[in-house]
Amino acid sequence: MYPRDELRELQRLKQENRKLFDQDPNNEARLVEIRDRLKHNYERSQEMFESINNIGMSDSVADINAIIQHLLDVGEGLTLETLRNHPSTIKGPLGRLRVGSTWKILEDGTRYLTTINFYPTKGAET
Fold first, then answer.
1. Most buried residue among 50, 71, 113, 114 by CB atoms closer than 10 A?
2. Which neighbouring-strand residues pair with 90?
3. Model-level pTM?
4. Strand order in the sheet with 86-92
5. DSSP 83
6. Contacts 24+ apart (CB under 8 A), 85-93
7. Count of CB atoms within 10 A of residue 92's CB?
8. 3 in Cβ contact with 38 (< 8 Å)
């Protein structure tokens, strides 16, 4: 989850006791990390979860396992030419969800998922 309480505490400390806040340079770095990078990641993950819900899937063990299996299957079929934003589709009870996954092949040949994006499709295609 997004660390809202930690963000509020750091902002409060910065406003109410700037001298104490400035004594630890990690405070400003953490504040920027929470406010910028972590907030973006949290919002992005919430949007992707909403996309999953819109096709009739949830955060149930069965649905999560179906998504994981889908990604494992995609990973098996990769080539050097299809590592970046590899397109695929997940089918749910209420429609389909386009998936863009980016992969890396490690030195030992293992396929490593680095990024995943879900793109809602228009309408409830089945």
1. 71
2. 97
3. 0.67
4. 86-92, 95-105, 111-120
5. -
6. 85/117, 90/55, 90/57, 90/66, 90/118, 91/55, 91/126, 92/52, 92/55, 92/56, 92/57, 92/63, 93/55, 93/56, 93/57
7. 20
8. yes
Copy the structure tokens of residue 95: 């429609």
Cα separation values, 14 from 100, 101, 111, Å: 40, 39, 44
> Which two three-digit tokens encode residue 75?
């990973």
Q: Which residue has the tokens 């397109």?
A: 87
8-65 tens-digit pLDDT: 999 999 999 999 999 999 999 999 999 888 888 888 889 999 999 999 999 999 999 9
Which among 54, 47, 125, 119 has a CA at the least distance from the CA of 87?
Answer: 119
Q: What tokens appear for 14 in the block?
A: 């910065």
